[in-house]
Amino acid sequence: MSTPNKNNIWSKMILAIRKGWCFVREDVWKCHSNNFFIHLIKTVNLSVRCFLNEMLQQRASALTFRTLLAIVPALVVLFAIGKGFGFNSIIEEQLYIAFPAHHGALEYAFTFVSGYIDQMHSGIFVGIGIVLLLWTLINLMSDIENTFNDLWNVPNRKLTRRITDYLAMFILMPILLLLSNGMSIFATTLLDKIPYISSLAQHIMQVSSYVLSWGFFALAYKLLPNAKVKYKHAIISGIICGTAFNIFQWIYLSGQIWVSKYNAIYGSFAFLPLLLLWLQFSWLICLIGVVLSYSSQNVFNFDYEKDIKNISRNYYERVLITIMAIIITRRHNGKEALTCSELAHTYTIPIQLVSRAINDLLHVELIAPTPVENDFAYIATVDSNDLTIGKLLRLIDDHGSKDFVDSINNKATQNDVLGNINKICYDNASQALVADIPIPQESDQTSY
Predict the structure, then answer these.
(1) Does pTM top 0.70 for this prediction?
(2) How far apart are the C-alpha atoms of 371 and 333, rounded to whole Å?
(3) pLDDT one-digit tens code per residue, 128-149
(4) Distance CA 346, CA 323 (A)
């Protein structure tokens, strides 16, 4: 009797696992609840899909190559500015502290930096050399921003805006390093003077490295994409990836004792493959954070994704009429025009459907965009008393190329039948105004 019971339990467990996997993979997108765990499942689902579809490994490799090219130019600019303020040694010390696993690589790079600066002083690289240095750095920052914007599906900033932002960052970086060094020295000195607290000071310094990483990643996720990234999503992604980066640093430092074979193979260049490995994984962690922040903020945009791809023509026409009715009704009631995302969230309609309908309505000139802050809202261009459902459907159906295949055009009888069917449908639908269609109630739900 025990064997059938065990088989029955196993069958139920397997069935439960299959149902759970089906829910996590597909059915969760049909759930419109703002429950935290539903939101979390959607975020992880979308993040994994983005990781696989957006080729993050290849993007990280491209940024690794760009970073390797820009290391020396970045250090040259950093030390050149630092030398003007008289704290070159502090910058060097801070770089050793910030990258403890790369003393060999930094020492090697510093030799290039000192030689580069000496050549600049001798006048050989003045002018053209400085322009090439800055251009290399601007290209690196531009590639980073382009990657962030690609993952967010937003356009890039103008070149002039990029150059001014990047130059300001290059100038502020040495000052921030100096302030960071001064604050750490002050905090260490102050805590050492207080008895019984030196061990606490060490723990605080260890925690501060995590806090600085969290802040750095959160600011990057908030400021670099050309999108309105909400603080909570940037901070959560910054904490996750900052923690992952510090853990990776610890594993990397701990594992270096097992890579002595690189010294036998590469000799004095042993630091190079290790540096490439570190850069690759660091960029991968950084890009995963971009995907996390995007997924967490935009899970609503992917609700009912499978159904939307397979939507029937009849149901899409109903959606189209409803969205046009919303735009007309809001204008008639004196309410402000809404953007695509605002329409989607206010009336609980998947944004993919809203965007598709807005594009179709724009093509037939039934609506027009009006600029708002960093976006466009949409208003009706026709009188609500003149737009019938039949007129809307006729405009949508007739938009685009037609009558260009001779073999089909020659079937006059078939064309007459189809034309009569369409005429009957349009005439019947012309009895009702779009403005009379009931619209969904406005939602007061807040997204995570």
Answers:
(1) no
(2) 20
(3) 666 667 777 778 888 888 888 8
(4) 12
* 11/22 Cα distance (integer angstroms): 16
Q: Do residues 349 and 343 touch, judged by C-beta distance below 8 A?
A: yes
- CA–CA distance, 320 with 342 (Å, rounded to integer): 16
3-state secondary structure 423-446: HHHHHHHCCCEHHHCCCCCCCCCC
Question: 402 Cβ partners below 8 Å, 6+ apart?
Answer: none
pLDDT tens for residues 167-210?
666 666 555 555 555 555 555 555 556 555 555 555 655 666 67
Highest mean pLDDT among 27-41, 248-262, 428-442: 428-442
User: Which residues 6+ apart lie within 8 Å of 369 measured at CB?
Assistant: 362, 376, 377, 378
Kindly report the three-state secondary structure assignment for every residue of the chain.
CHHHHHHHHHHHHHHHHHHHHHHHHCHHHHCCCCCHHHHHHHHHHHHHHHHHHCCHHHHHHHHHHHHHHHHHHHHHHHHHHHHHHCCHHHHHHHHHHHCHHHHHHHHHHHHHHHHHHHHHHHCCCCCHHHHHHHHHHHHHHHHHHHHHHHHHCCCCCCHHHHHHHHHHHHHHHHHHHHHHHHHHHHHHHHHHHCCCCHHHHHHHHHHHHHHHHHHHHHHHHHHCCCCCCCHHHHHHHHHHHHHHHHHHHHHHHHHHHHCHHHHHHHHHHCHHHHHHHHHHHHHHHHHHHHHHHHHHHHHHHHCCHHHHHCCCHHHHHHHHHHHHHHHHHHHHCCCCCECHHHHHHHHCCCHHHHHHHHHHHHHCCCEEEEEECCEEEEEECCCCCCCEHHHHHHHHHHCCCCCCCHHHHCCHHHHHHHHHHHHHHHHHHCCCEHHHCCCCCCCCCCCC
- d(Cα 305, Cα 301) in Å, to the nearest integer? 8
Report the distance separating Cα 98 and Cα 74, nearest Å.
Answer: 15
In this structure, are strands 367-372 and 375-380 parallel, antiparallel, or unpaired?
Answer: antiparallel
